[in-house]
Amino acid sequence: MKTYGELLLIEGKWRMSSVPPHVVIRLKQLFPRIPKWMTGTFTFPNDTSHCADLSWFTVRYPLQMTEQDKLVLEGGRDIFERNQVRMEEILLPDYAPPVRVGLKEGQSVRHYQAQAVELFLSRTCQLLGDDVGLGKTYTAAAAFLDTRTLPAVVVMQTHLQDQWREKIEEFTNLRVHKIKVTRPYDLPEADVYLFKYSQLLGWVDLFEDGFFKCVVYDEIQELRRGTDSGKGRAAKRLSESAKFCMGLSATPVYNFGAELWNILEYIDPSLLGSNHDFLREWCIGSKEVRDPDALGTYLREHHVMLRRTKREVGQQLPPINTIVETIEPDSVTLKSVEDLAKQLAIKTTIGSFLERGRAGRELDLLMRHATGVSKAVAVAQYAKIFLEAGIPILLVGWHRDVYDIWLRELKDCCPAMYTGSESEKQKSESVRRFVEGETDVFILSLRSGAGLDGLQYRCSTIIFGELDWSPKVHEQVIGRLNREGQVEQLTAVYLNADEGSDPPMVELLGIKSSQASGINDPGRQFEARFTDKSRISALAEQFLSKVM
Predict the structure, then answer these.
(1) Are 492 and 444 in contact (CB under 8 A)?
(2) For the segment 198-230, what is each residue's pLDDT rounded down to a tens digit?
(3) Whole-angstrom Cα distance, residue 544 to residue 360?
(4) Confidence grade of residue 528 (pLDDT, cut at 50, 70, 90)
């Protein structure tokens, strides 16, 4: 039989050499991670996926191999194909999952949750992107009933530690321990240990000994900046030492699709290749994914991402009633910063590299703050319309000065606060006051609500008094009410000004939504106005037009 080169297993990697040029061209088409400039010897990981692909390639272009290497290659292919069949079977509607021992009396794992558990245990890594309200917490807890995952770690945002403990303990018989401080101490015996993201760095030395068999990252978009942060570097070590890795988030892409590479580094770092490979093959520039639908499909075909919507699992909630209102801002407030905003806008275009960066950040902070403050009174007056009708509301903002105005204007309602300024105890008390009807106003920070549960039993109206640059932040907030337990149609009100930072923010949110939509739900139609503007250039253009 004619051969087209040599394939050998050397030091745990497949090495292909002596391949003629016309076959190299075909090889690079089929294995896009191979740099276009590379010649001579080509190296591939010895994992089941590459074994399957290389075995398939050798059918068309036979390569010289030792008998032992052939057995290894075909063995890897067989394992890959069996795993693929197994995982496809798990996702069939009539799949019968095994019964898990360890649930509290009266509790049960739903069929779609059990499918996610079995897929995770088979794959050992998973990005679970189920819709908000579908019980991703309970899915993770059900996975812990398999003793191979114990002891396990769950990493969550600061305000969710108590909520995770309560849900695991009410659902299972597992022993749970909350990590109390950022410095290591002798851990009590437990099945599940709950870490805050802010605690990871202090415990990083403990992660290397392989004590923890499974790690679950709640709201894994917290790691979207990768190892640039201390918590990101600590989480990377934790993932490397654990056998099972799971990320939970209905909104893994907060801004641009390229964030997904950082997220997958904590779950399955081999799937997307190096960052250079990912940017070259999948992206336009350093942020935007060229074809979000294709990337979303690729992640599903490899069974690393699993996402089900409420409709797909049989939960029929009323459609969201979205209202967008233009309100009149306080022009005096905006006028007071206009001259400074113009100066900063000019610096973003003609200053040095450092000056442009500093001016851009200052312009962003300045205009978002001024816009929020200028709208605050009008937003409070709008909120009173609902409150006077006896309708409880979530009032969502970002700046402390804005909250202060709302507190003053709505003082008769004694608002509950859930922002970045309250302690965990104060936040829990705020939730209790609102849910038990002691107040009809729950002031929520745009980025403090991820994972929060329970508000849906009291409220179905959200008022966005300020906007975020990421559309997924708004989606997370809506998810606090649009979840199981909600019995009324949800109303989301966006109160925007036609001046300040709101116009460019509304425009830029379109492309970010399209990026996340394609990856989360490939094939679903999403209409958005595409723009290549950054948020800073969008703000700067608004004020430069006044200068010219």
Answers:
(1) no
(2) 999 999 988 988 899 999 999 999 999 899 889
(3) 13
(4) very low
Residue type at position 71: L
Q: Are 414 and 439 in contact (CB under 8 A)?
A: yes
Terminal CA-CA length for the chain: 74
Alpha-carbon separation of residue 111 from 122, 135, 138 (angstroms)? 17, 12, 12
Give the separation between CA 359 and CA 444, rounded to whole angstroms: 29
Residue 456: name the closest of 442, 469, 445 by CA: 442
How far is 518 from 294, CA to CA, in rounded Å? 8
H/E element holding 200?
A: none
Cα separation, 230 vs 406, whole angstroms: 35
Q: How far is CA 217 from CA 138, 283, 344, 345, 389, in A?
A: 14, 25, 39, 39, 41
Please state, in angstroms and rounded to a whole number, the distance separating the CA atoms of residues 548 and 537.
16
Residue scoring higher pLDDT (436 or 344) = 436
Give the C-alpha separation, 235 to 238, whole Å: 5
Dist. CA 44–CA 58, nearest whole Å: 14
What is the C-alpha separation between 42 and 33, in angstroms, rounded?
11
Burial call 157-168: b when 16+ CB within 10 Å, e when fewer: bebbbebbbebb
Tokens 């004619």 sit at which residue?
Answer: 2
Backbone angles phi and psi of 335, in degrees to 5: -65, -30
The C-alpha angle with vertex 212 and arms to 206 and 218, in degrees rounded to 5, equals: 100
